[in-house]
Design goal:
The longest helix is centred in the N-terminal third of the chain and has 9 residues. The protein has 66 residues and is mostly beta strands. β1 and β2 form a beta hairpin.
Length: 66
């Protein structure tokens, strides 16, 4: 998925695929435990190479707040 979940079905799929052998997805939350954004590590390669792609985004109400 190359975009934020926009329906309950997409959100459920996101949660099901949150952890796998080559990917990990984290929610970023504020002090009130509201979701502010997401951090994704994908195509994780272990061993001597130790590599992954990093993707992240903020939800619109939190964008640009550092």
């Amino acid at each position: 998925m190359g975009h934020a979940p926009s329906s309950s079905a997409e959100y459920r799929l996101y949660l099901r695929e949150r952890h796998g052998p080559r990917q990990v997805k984290y929610f970023v939350c504020d002090d009130l435990r509201q979701i502010c954004g997401v951090i994704n590590l994908s195509e994780i390669v272990r061993g001597s190479f130790q590599s992954a792609y990093l993707g992240y985004y903020a939800l619109a109400p939190h964008a640009g707040k550092g």
